[in-house]
Every structure is written in structure tokens, then in C-alpha cells.
Design goal:
With 460 residues, the protein is α+β, with helices and mostly antiparallel strands. The chain has 3 domains: 189 residues, no CATH class; 34 residues, no CATH class; 182 residues, no CATH class. It contains 11 helices and 18 strands. α8 packs parallel to α11. The longest helix has 41 residues. The protein is elongated.
């Protein structure tokens, strides 16, 4: 029953998207009718010159109202018919892109739109509503046009600051284009297919300095401050020579084959060219259905990972980002844009564990979260804590702590309208909170024992 009601409500809401007039039109008509009836009752004495003049003024007001409605409807219909004809004749070029987002204090994502050909109603508006991720609809919004020197144009090229809840890739299924008059009495809609996608991008924020060095040598053009060990493989031997250390002779091989061979020793290589960054999105806890972990915590984690990457790049090394999940290789302008895209589309995952994901021979930096497996982190840090830098991002600290006054306000004063406040309250009441807090505390205690471990809190 509840599902049927929800489906009916969704169906009625979709029908409402295509109603050709607005609430302004209904309110204007009701107010005009009420005003007309009231004025009729105030017409004065019958068969007087005042009544005749008053009736003439009323007719003039009615004709003026009809003229306004006619002008509004005609301007909208011209634009609608032009758009419909172009849609059938040549098709509509509809494109969406997201510029880079560098301001971490701005909660909205700037989205750029390009629509051609489209004719804006005279003194009116062209608005857009998007259907995304198959089931969700955006609000109807007005695109802010960029400066254009042309007096007459059939192109809309502008931006909209969209309050999107997640840092991820959004897939646009359809776009509903609305043509509205200056008075916003009429709103005639036309749907176009918009097989498009765009991704919201993590912002850059300042963070604590990270001590990390490259460990992978692909070129010998960059000298590093700290010598790194290059271990000799056990199967990598060479014939004994006069200048070799006799202590490195493999006597087992000599006893078997009567050949003098020595094991290639580990060396200290003063060169390195690449810094490998391993950010883990693996979760050892059951987070399914927890909106707080899947949206604000994940957004925070992605933002800090991007900031870590930018800080490492600024050190002058070639940083290679190694994702722990499949990411489509889209056509990006630069390697940094590809990394930002990889971070944006990543999700919490349970398929690739930390011990199977990290190649300790190459890794320079490993990023973990409050959801990481403590035992696996302990194995890695005990074996490589003096060679690899570990970055820990405590997720619960992305929220400010709630005080008694916040609870009092939530219970007695007002409904929460700001989404962050809703997330904070939901997290305070979540059964998962204690498990994450306990896991987070164990990881902090473990990482505090090593100099190369860094805990990145919300404020750096």
C-alpha cells in the first residue's frame, strides 16, 4: 500500500512538471475576479454618468488584462514552436560540464550549460529541470547567461550553482526545457534526451604538511634526500668474481652444482622519480544504508585525498594515483584532472582489501580512513612504517561536536532545515557510531607510534 502511494505521488509530481501555467497565473486570475466583483458592487447609483464611466474603466481593465495574457502566451508559444521544430529538424545540442572547484567553503557546484538552438521568449525566461541517475529530478532553475555581445542569439551558454549532495559522477537522462513569459504566468515544457554525464569535484583545502618520499625508480633524473633500500631478489644471483664478498656466496648452490654464485645484495639508491599514492576506500564495517557514511563522510574523505595529492605534487615529484576500484579512463585535459575524476567517482568498497591492494615495494603514501581494517593496517605499518608514509583521515571529526544546546534546539525550538545539521543528528543517533569511533581510536593509537604517520583532521 505504501509503495503504491509513493508511486502515485511520484506520478502526480511528474505530471505537475508539464502543467502549462503557474501558480502566479492562478493567483492573478483569482485576485482579478475578486477585485472585479468588489468593484462591480461599488459602481454607484444606477443610470448615472459615474456608473457609465466606472463600467468603461472596468472594461478597459479587462481588455488590458487580456492583452497581458495574450502577449505572454504568444511570446512563449513562438519560442516553444521554434524549439520543437529545431528538435525534429536538426536536433538540439545540449552539453553539461563542471569547471574545477578550488574553494572548499563553497557548498555548491558550478555547472556549465550549453543549449543550441533555443529562442528565449521576449522579456521572458528559459529554465531547465534535469532528470539524473534514472530516478531523481532537480529543481527548475534559471541558467545565468555569460556575457554575450550579440543582441539576438539562439544559444544559451551559462552556469548554475547547484546544491548537489555528493561528490560523484551524475548521469543525466533527460532535460525538461521550460519557456516562461516575463510575468511567469505560463510555463510550457518540452523534454529532450540528454545522454550526458558530469562529475562534481572535490575542493582543495589546506592540510598539515606530509613527510613522504618517492620509493619507485623509473628515471634516474631526480635525486632524493633520503636513500631508499632496493632489495635483491632471492632468485637473482650472479657468478662469483674476485672482487665479490665471499660472505655472500650461496653455499647451498655450491654443494649442489659445484658453482660459486653470490646473491645480489640490497643497495641504497640515491635516485627516485615517482611517488605512488594508495588511497584505500575499503570498509571493514557494514555501512550499507547509512546515509551519513555514504555522503558527508565520503565527501570529506575525497576532499582530503585530493588535498593530499595536490600537496605531494607541489613537492615536485611525479605522483601516481593508484585507485582501488575500476575507474573508466575518460578523456581528460591532464593527469591531474584524471586523478580528480578517479577520486570523484570512487565509492566505499568491500572487494579489495588493504593487504591485497597496496604494493609495498612501490608505495610512498597510503591513505586510510576510520573504516579501514585495524589488523591489516597494523601488519603494514609494523613491516613498513619506517619506509611508507601513512595518512589517517578520521571521518567522525568532519562534524563539529554537538552540544546540549544543539539537542535542545532540535527537540523544542525548530525543525532542522540545514542538511549538515540533519546529518549530525542522524549520526548521533546511529548504532554504527560507536563501532566507527572504536575503530578510529584504535587506528589513532596505532599510528601515533610512528613518525611517518599523519592524522589529518578537518581543520588541518
Amino acid at each position: 500500500m505504501r509503495k503504491r502511494f509513493r508511486n502515485s505521488r511520484f506520478f502526480l509530481k511528474r505530471i505537475g512538471f508539464y502543467i502549462p501555467f503557474t501558480w502566479y497565473f492562478i493567483l492573478f486570475c483569482l485576485a482579478s475576479f475578486a477585485g472585479y466583483e468588489w468593484l462591480q458592487s461599488q459602481a454607484g447609483a444606477p443610470d448615472s454618468a459615474y456608473k457609465d464611466i466606472f463600467a468603461l474603466l472596468l472594461r478597459f481593465a479587462i481588455l488590458f488584462g487580456i492583452a497581458i495574457f495574450s502577449f505572454a502566451l504568444v511570446t512563449v508559444m513562438i519560442s516553444f514552436l521554434f524549439f520543437s521544430w529545431k528538435k525534429r529538424k536538426t536536433g538540439i545540442d545540449f552539453r553539461i560540464t563542471t569547471p574545477s572547484r578550488e574553494d572548499s567553503t563553497q557548498p555548491k557546484q558550478t555547472v556549465s550549460f550549453y543549449i543550441h538552438p533555443v529562442l528565449k521568449p521576449l522579456l521572458g525566461f528559459v529554465k531547465v529541470r534535469l532528470k539524473y541517475d534514472s530516478v531523481h529530478f532537480s529543481e527548475k532553475f534559471l541558467i545565468v547567461k555569460r556575457a554575450d555581445k550579440k543582441v539576438f542569439s539562439t544559444t544559451i551558454n551559462g552556469i548554475y550553482n547547484w546544491q548537489l549532495p555528493e561528490i560523484k559522477e551524475y548521469r543525466i537522462d533527460k532535460a525538461i526545457i521550460y519557456f516562461e513569459d516575463f510575468f511567469q504566468f505560463f510555463s510550457i515544457a518540452l523534454t529532450i534526451n540528454a545522454s550526458n554525464s558530469f562529475h562534481t569535484q572535490p575542493a582543495t583545502r589546506t592540510s598539515k604538511a606530509i613527510k613522504a618520499f618517492p620509493r619507485k625508480t623509473e628515471e634516474t633524473s631526480t635525486r632524493i634526500e633520503e636513500l631508499k633500500k632496493v632489495e635483491g631478489e632471492l632468485i637473482n644471483y650472479k657468478n662469483f668474481e674476485s672482487n665479490d664478498d665471499v660472505r655472500r656466496i650461496v653455499w647451498k648452490i655450491y654443494a649442489k652444482n659445484k658453482e660459486l654464485v653470490v646473491r645480489i645484495p640490497e643497495i641504497l639508491d640515491p635516485y627516485a622519480s615517482h611517488m605512488y599514492l594508495y588511497p584505500s576506500f575499503f570498509t571493514s564495517l557494514n555501512i550499507q544504508g547509512n546515509e551519513v557514511v555514504e555522503i558527508p563522510f565520503l565527501n570529506h574523505y575525497k576532499t582530503v585525498i585530493w588535498s593530499v595529492y595536490k600537496q605531494l605534487v607541489q613537492k615536485g615529484y611525479e605522483v601516481k594515483y593508484i585507485p582501488d576500484q575500476d575507474v573508466s579512463q575518460t578523456q581528460m585535459e591532464s593527469a591531474e584532472e584524471q586523478v580528480k575524476y578517479s577520486i570523484s567517482v570512487s565509492r566505499w568498497q568491500t572487494d579489495l582489501e588493504l593487504r591485497d591492494y597496496v604494493k609495498t615495494r612501490d608505495a610512498s603514501v597510503i591513505v586510510i580512513s576510520s573504516l579501514s581494517n585495524v589488523e591489516q593496517v597494523q601488519e603494514l605499518i609494523e613491516a613498513h612504517g619506517n619506509e611508507i608514509s601513512f595518512i589517517f583521515i578520521p571521518l567522525t571529526e568532519s562534524f563539529n561536536r554537538q552540544h546540549l544546546g544543539d539537542w535542545f534546539q532540535w527537540l523544542f525550538v525548530q525543525q532542522e532545515k540545514e542538511k549538515t545539521a540533519v546529518y549530525k543528528t542522524n549520526w548521533s543517533l546511529s548504532l554504527l557510531r560507536l563501532k566507527v569511533a572504536r575503530n578510529e581510536k584504535q587506528l589513532k593509537q596505532l599510528l601515533e607510534q610512528y613518525d611517518r604517520s599523519t592524522v589529518l583532521k578537518k581543520n588541518g
